[in-house]
Amino acid sequence: MALLNFKKRETPGARTVNPQVEALLDGYSIEVMPRTAEKVDNFRDLLPEGTRVYIAHIEGTPIEDMVTTAKRVAAEGYKVMPHFPARIIKDQATLEDWIARYQGEAGVSQALVLAGGVKEPHGDFDSSMQLLESGAFDRAGFKRLHVAGHPEGNRDIDPDGGMKNVEDAMQWKQKFSERTDAEMALATQFAFDADPIIKWANDLSAAGITLPIHIGIAGPAKLQTLIKFAIACGVGPSLKVLQKRAMDVSKLLLPYEPTDVLTKLAAHKAANPDFNITNVHFFPLGGIKTNAEWAIENGGASTVPAAKQG
């Protein structure tokens, strides 16, 4: 197993790896931004070779910075998946320019296509569906397209707190996946409670949504940091998990780790092999190094096996 400079740490007293969690962590992905990537001297010291690295495009980040980060991450041996947030893309020409830059300078052939968190669109596009319908990714020969999933809904899409618009969009994405040659999957917002995640995933399956789910998981971080991000990102019912933890004085000052939610999801996956959550996608809210080290300690140190290329 060639992992360049990467190797699993073997330290005295290291935690025992749960084999079910280890299996679920195979082929995990992680999200970075240009400014957070700059803090990492060498990704090879932290991530398995071939890991999919999403590059989040936050409003105001120049495309030049995004492409530079993509080029650097790809050169270190990783599969780069930049965000294409519809609401900050001015027009078709801008979309095609971004695609051409990523392809030409960093060899990118995959994208996370999403609406983005901006309230008012900067131009012609308002939704991921409009970007997909444009045909730009198809003409460029992108091999993989991920779209957003929302286990606890999204008030930007359903202001009343319901799920109707989210569910309608999911049906559209499913139908689009059936008429494109690109491999597709859902990359979801992070959540903290396994039970609602399992119900949501099973409901999708019952509704005929067969897209593989890459479940969003917040990496280890200070509790206050997670609560801040959870509120800002509109995390719903599972926010109560953090709030309950905050009321426990014995845990208040301890960093949150995603052990409980992943253990429960992994156990469900082991008992139900056809369960449609196939991969873990980390949001390293407490830092890339902290998240990567947690993954290593919990068995996430294997290259992506052929069965989990999705």
UniProtKB/TrEMBL annotation:
<dbReference type="InterPro" id="IPR029041">
    <property type="entry name" value="FAD-linked_oxidoreductase-like"/>
</dbReference>
<dbReference type="GO" id="GO:0035999">
    <property type="term" value="P:tetrahydrofolate interconversion"/>
</dbReference>
<comment type="pathway">
    <text>Amino-acid biosynthesis; L-methionine biosynthesis via de novo pathway.</text>
</comment>
<dbReference type="GO" id="GO:0106312">
    <property type="term" value="F:methylenetetrahydrofolate reductase (NADH) activity"/>
</dbReference>
<protein>
    <recommendedName>
        <fullName>methylenetetrahydrofolate reductase (NADH)</fullName>
        <ecNumber>1.5.1.54</ecNumber>
    </recommendedName>
</protein>
<dbReference type="GO" id="GO:0005829">
    <property type="term" value="C:cytosol"/>
</dbReference>
<dbReference type="GO" id="GO:0009086">
    <property type="term" value="P:methionine biosynthetic process"/>
</dbReference>
<keyword id="KW-0560">Oxidoreductase</keyword>
<dbReference type="GO" id="GO:0071949">
    <property type="term" value="F:FAD binding"/>
</dbReference>
